[in-house]
Amino acid sequence: MCGEVPVGLVALLAVVSVALASATHRYASAWTSDPTLWAYAVTRAPEKPRVLNNHAVMLASQGRLEEARVWFERAHRAGHSPDLPLWDNVEGELRARENLIALKALMNMATKVASR
Amino acid sequence: MRHLAVGLFLLALTAGAYRTAWSAAWVYEDRATLTSATTTTGWQRVITYATWRLTPTPRAAHLLNLMCHLVIGLLLAILARRLGLTALGMWVVVLLWLLHPLMVETVAYAKARSEQLVLIGVLLALIAASGRWWRPLGLIGISGGSLFALGSEPSGVVVFLLVPLMVWHRQHAQKAPSWASWWMPAGVAAALIVAGVVWYGGLWAVVNVDTEAGITSVSAVTWWQWGLAQSGAVWHWCRTVFWPAGVTPDLDVDHLSPLTQWLGITMMMAWAGLAVRYSRTRPLVTLALLWMLCMIGPRLIVQTPRSYLNAAQFAGAFMGLALLAGYGTEQWRQQWTRPF
Description:
The complex is a heterodimer of chains A (about 120) and B (about 350).
Chain A: H1 7-30, H2 34-44, H3 49-61, H4 65-78, H5 87-97, H6 100-114
Helix pairs in contact in A: 2-3, 3-4, 3-6, 5-6
Chain B: H1 2-17, H2 30-39, H3 46-54, H4 58-82, H5 87-99, H6 104-108, H7 113-129, H8 136-152, H9 159-169, H10 183-200, H11 203-207, H12 212-219, H13 223-242, H14 258-277, H15 283-301, H16 315-337
């Protein structure tokens, strides 16, 4: 016995505490930036348009356009996001300009979709 | 000394679990919230926005969220002791609050601070309501906590459900003067809710929108559809309490199955049934179950366009589950130490 509480119960609670802290740290790490957050989110909500779209925007903002294309198309297939532009238009704008204006437009779109 | 050791152990684990708070950037709608905080005037979310103006950098904002998380843990410990839990039960409640992954969203997402501030206000009011609430200090505590909750986020209105619940639960704990009946706070709270809804414009308050377009988008969803969807979310988050792998920043409520939705409704009905059943034999269980229903109930009714119950909004209900876990651990300990 440890005071009034059995040692076994104390040990069990200590193990639970450490396990929860470890899981919490893993999940908190996903919240450190938008790219990590949406990369995590698509693994938990792989059919949600907002999640797919925001992940695609993050990839595009990192210059990973081919990967972004796949996720934008998945966002379109997932549906009910009429404000999302067709990927071909987005890609054309990105390739033509490859500057912050295009990315800013993407971010605006993401914000618009995210706020719905 | 032993309490100090346990407290430091949990504090160290919490600091370690949330060490990313030092380096995390703004995420999701944090930037938009910061802009709102610096441009919006008016009384709504006045406390939340004041804290945002004090923390314009991500590090400061995240550290403040972490501090709020610890303060809530402390207030929960005080309330748990007041409600009669032993030190073991209290530490289980605090442990779950501080370290469960479901609470990550309230700490790591700066925008979710409004939910934390609501909970701080609610807990202050409940601590006051759990004592001699009719005395000046008690009334000041209830009023101050309630105003703090309401000034942080409209969802702070749950304080009008929880304070009467707490007074009712504690009616036999101390002798009140004849004029301070247990139903009096319930009457005052009901009057305030009705007055608030009328003052806010009736339907506008119930659907939680500020524009005609918002009214239209909400009207496209029936109450039944809304309640079913939210019930599915309740089931998901309750399941996540036991299996944290399902925790997510953006739950896909639209794709939850009808089975999940019905499981959510059934579970909440079971909570209500068990609350009635244990009202005399295990009043703390009744309190915890009704606590969860009070925290979730308004969200089944108040429609916010395209905004389903998220993990941060479930934090209040999680407290009820933590109280149940603390109480259950105590009961288990008694079985464990009972001689064969």
